[in-house]
Amino acid sequence: MYAGDGEEEEDRTTQYRRDRPARGGRTKSYTRCVSLPNDDLQSFRSWLQWMCVDQSSFWRAALSWIVFLTLSVAVPLVSHFVLLTDSDKEAQRRRASYDAVVQLSLSSVAALSFICLSTFFRRYGHRRFLSLDKLCRESEAVRSGYTAQLNRSFKLLSMFVAPCFVIETGYKVWWYIAGARRIPFLGNPYVSDVVACAFELCSWLYRTAIFFLVCLLFRLICFLQILRLQDFALVFEDSDVAFILAEHLRIRRQLRVISHRFRFFIVSCLVLVTLSQLASLLHTTRSDVVVDLLNAGELTICSLVLVAGILLCLRSAAKITHKAQAITSHAAKWHAFATIDSCDEGSNRIHPVDNLDESSDYEELGDDDDLEDTKILQPRANIMSFQKRQALVTYLENNRAGITVFGFMVDRAWLHMIFGVELSLVLWLLGKTVGISRNMTSLICH
């Protein structure tokens, strides 16, 4: 738990109605934010230690850097420049070009992820980075939902990494069986191939896991903000304007903090993935290149990993931005129904919600638009004046929250812009590499 032992938290909406002024300060039982060996992050730290990225002490930090330099730098360099060999020099040159793109792409995103992760943990610590120190202010539903998501974060990591690793293992084993060789550095060529294959698979697994780990941590933190926004939608029922403004400012502040922490990672990752995909496209569309499974198979797996990681980050950022901006429409709908109820107060009319069955239609929408649904609200009458409600809606319309990257809001329009830029680069590169040869042109003319 994040609260003190022996104290039960009341439902947040009930607490709003009971003691609204008393929420200005913190309860003493919710002020614990010091990391303890047996606290709620014990499982999380154990997974970090198994992945050799825990830098909570000097020796663990040293071990983490040694493993990173070995698996992300030394093994790919030795595999590419020392052990790669083939009897056919032309085949070796083609294989080396493909291998260079794969090794450079994976090592680059792994180095970016490891440096960002080390900076986050060293500067903020585990609890502050995961926003656990701010969780004491949230409701029980937010805390329980975030705790469950935190506990299954490494399960999600295994769901992303395990299928890719199985495919990579099968391809690598087939690659060696199909005739690809390494320099026999242990004397026996078969033993050398087995050792080289094991080191290459460990290096691939480490680099892929580090990259997906940072992407899933970003998704985890965005998931907390989604829970906060869903909980924030409840305060419109019977809270005053000052409290609603304070809560919205707190959410905006947290979203700015997340944007500031991850903007370098998102932009750098987007640039690296774009360059990697353009290099892959360049290698596979040249006129003199030979594209087969032996050479381009690992390049395909690498491309799938990189694209899946960056799409995971962009989808999480766009989703939290969409949820944050949906608060404005939710507030406008609440203001409209509150105004209607105040104007029709005292009348004996039947509310439309009494004769309207929307349950079947609403189930088809899913939970993506839970703040923008078309259900009719029944706000409490006379909870605040029309001028206050109008001022609140005007404030929300002009202070939209969301994930930003150097001032640009990461929403669906931003994703469409990225897609347009990427498509333009792909078409430009295809125009430079793919064309009709002169012989084909003369054949068509004749």
TrEMBL record:
Keyword Transmembrane helix: yes
Keywords: Membrane, Transmembrane, Transmembrane helix
Keyword check for Transmembrane: yes
Compositional bias annotation for Acidic residues: 1-11
Disordered: region residues: 1-27
Regions that span the bilayer: 58-81, 101-121, 156-177, 204-227, 262-282, 294-314, 413-431
Protein name, entry field: Uncharacterized protein
Annotated source species: Spirodela intermedia (Intermediate duckweed)
